[in-house]
Design brief:
Blueprint lengths: L3 E6 L3 E7 L4 E7 L4 E7 L2 E8 L1 H11 L9 H10 L1 E6 L11 H4 L1 H5 L2 E7 L2 E4 L13 E6 L1 H11 L6
Antiparallel strand pairs: 1-2, 2-3, 3-4, 4-5, 6-9, 7-8, 7-9
């Protein structure tokens, strides 16, 4: 836990001190709403800035991830291990040629999802499963785990899916 200190400043406001391993962050909140932030290292102010109440609220929302939530390293490693994007090109002899995702039952048979198709210079995000027909040399962008993508690649290349 990071050491944290609150200090009343009568008639002025309140001071907050956060001690990190090599510096202090000091924030003075004035009764007027103005906030002064100081970065102190070895008892010397290295950097400081002042924020209005509105600016401080906006910064607070950013710092507390109200606008954009990050993913923890553990979650990111899990996602990267379990969820993979793959680009697979369809040959002219593939059973996919001239057929739709619905005809092929791609997700049912492999568990993988086709999220987009690249056809020449055209890009088709989220192709309609009932009307979009694959052509030779289409590149599909799919998502799934390793086994699902391996099964999809076998399916695209005429091999039986396990």
């Amino acid at each position: 836990m990071i050491p944290f200190e609150e200090i009343d400043l009568p008639g002025i406001g309140r001071k907050y001190v956060i001690k990190t391993y090599d510096k202090e962050i000091q924030v003075i909140v004035y009764e007027t709403g103005i906030k002064q932030v100081y970065f102190v290292k070895d008892d010397e102010v290295v950097f400081e800035f002042t924020l209005t109440s509105e600016e401080a609220k906006r910064l607070g929302l950013i710092l507390t991830e109200a606008f954009y939530q990050t993913v923890s390293k553990d979650k990111l490693e899990y996602i990267q291990d379990q969820l993979i994007f793959e680009w697979i090109k369809i040959s002219d002899r593939s059973p996919f040629v001239g057929r739709t995702l619905s005809d092929l039952e791609v997700r049912k048979k492999t568990g993988a999802s086709v999220v987009a198709v690249i056809r020449g210079k055209e890009f088709f995000p989220n192709p309609d499963p009932y009307s979009f027909k694959f052509l030779p040399n289409d590149t599909i962008i799919c998502i799934g785990n390793r086994k699902q993508l391996k099964d999809l690649e076998k399916y695209i290349n005429h091999l039986n899916v396990e």
